[in-house]
């Protein structure tokens, strides 16, 4: 089993800022890495809409559905989940 994070996309602006987004193939968590420590957004906190939007970048849905006892605490755009620089 491959346990290396899967690169989804890279964000780059005109001033040299670069950030990468990855998905953990084991947990499905979204990993955002700019400078410093990476930020991890748990798979369970991504809404269905956010997961669907990420799929165009290669984001994989986990087998089966999310257990019903887990509520989605995060709504809105993917960008709102990423740390502010």
Order of helices and strands: EEEEHH
Profile the largest sheet: 4 strands, antiparallel
Q: Strand-residue fraction?
A: 15-25%
Radius of gyration: 13 Å
Question: How would you write the strand order of the largest sheet?
Answer: 1-2-3-4
Total helices: the number is 2
Structural class: alpha+beta
Fraction of helical residues: 10-25%
Unreliable stretches (pLDDT < 50, length at least 5) are 65-75
Mean pLDDT: 78
Determine the N-to-C terminus distance.
34 Å
- Identify the overall geometry: globular
Overall strand count: 4
Characterize the structure shown.
The protein is of the alpha+beta class. It has one domain (6-74). Helix content is 14%, strand content 24%. The chain has 2 helices and 4 strands. It has helices spanning 48-55, 78-81; strands at 6-12, 18-23, 30-33, 39-41. The protein has a 4-stranded antiparallel β-sheet with strand order 1-2-3-4, with no helix packed on it. Mean pLDDT is 78; it is low at 65-75.
Short account of what is shown:
The chain has two helices and four strands. The chain has 85 residues and is α+β, with helices and mostly antiparallel strands.
List the helices and strands and how they pair.
Blueprint: E1 6-12, E2 18-23, E3 30-33, E4 39-41, H1 48-55, H2 78-81
Antiparallel strand pairs: 1-2, 2-3, 3-4
Q: Top keywords for this entry?
A:
four-stranded antiparallel beta sheet, 85 residues, alpha+beta, 2 helices, 24% strand
């Amino acid at each position: 089993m491959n346990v290396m994070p899967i690169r989804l996309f890279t964000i780059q602006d005109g001033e040299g800022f670069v950030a990468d987004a990855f998905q953990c193939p084991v947990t499905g968590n979204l990993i955002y890495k700019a400078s410093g420590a990476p930020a991890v957004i748990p798979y369970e906190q991504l809404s269905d809409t956010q997961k669907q939007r990420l799929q165009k970048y290669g984001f994989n849905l986990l087998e089966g559905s999310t257990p019903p006892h887990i509520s989605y605490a995060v709504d809105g755009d993917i960008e709102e989940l990423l740390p502010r620089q």
